[in-house]
Amino acid sequence: MSSLSALNGPRIKVGARDGQAYETIGVNRLTPLIGAEISGVSLGGPISNRQMDEIHRALAEHLVIFFRDQHMSQEQHLDFGRQFGELHLHPAAPHEPGHPELMIIKADENSVRANGEGWHSDVSCDLEPPMGSILYIRECPPDGGDTLFASMYGAYDALSDRMKAYLEGLTAEHSGEHVYRGMFAKEGVADKASYPRAEHPVIRTHPVTGRKALYVNRGFTTRILGVPRDESDGILAWLYQHMENPLFQCRFRWKPNSVAFWDNRCAQHRAMWDYWPNRRYGNRVTVKGERPV
């Protein structure tokens, strides 16, 4: 099934424009497949058109990009997100007062859970799932709290040709019901009558890069449609194990005032909650996306 040896061959593409120099920002790659730290830009200050173009390019090439030592107000955080599109409203999570687009990311000694503990792509249960998420962490625990990111381009490219042929054209159901109902009750958020549900292709084509990526995840995907339930369960279990291979991953160690910006269309992530009872606090701005094809 898996062709992990393909990681050293032509199936794994680092990026269509890989190798071209950046002129206005610094880009330090974390791994060959995913992740880069960006320097030379202040997200809370004026950003030139050329810098913004290169940030767009870095996100497309590296799937997730990181910024250190940033100082943004809530309004500046929202404004930066709007440079990439209309902002998305989370269907369940608590938000900052007066800013429904500004999701609260918090865990402390009173928490029973932390945001994003399992592998997922944000709100993939929406009919038009988010394009990207911009997480700004102001407070960090002294140790732990890393976030892992995985390339779904890499996971797709490493599949055997037979598995690619099997998955091509299949559709999967994504549901928010089992994820969100009761999740934020401790934060005072009442449940809604219903939560989003959508059907998306198992393999999606990125609208910017044109590359194919796996688009199922442990968090929201409930079944593959058009095949028996036991077959769906078996294929999904194998795909999840395959996608979570460390060869496709990078790991980000947070420091106060750091920012991570990831592309939900081609990357999944998992937050490590290994710092209880310490506190972690920040905000996430999410950019609307399009219906997967």
Automatic annotation (TrEMBL):
Keyword Metal-binding in record: yes
InterPro entries recorded: AtsK-like, TauD-like_sf, TauD/TfdA-like
Pfam family, one: TauD
One of the record's GO molecular function terms: taurine dioxygenase activity
Record keywords, A-Z: Dioxygenase, Iron, Metal-binding, Oxidoreductase
SUPFAM superfamilies assigned to the protein according to its UniProt record, in alphabetical order: Clavaminate synthase-like
PANTHER family per UniProt: ALPHA-KETOGLUTARATE-DEPENDENT SULFONATE DIOXYGENASE
Name the record gives this protein: Taurine dioxygenase
Organism in which the protein naturally occurs: Dankookia rubra
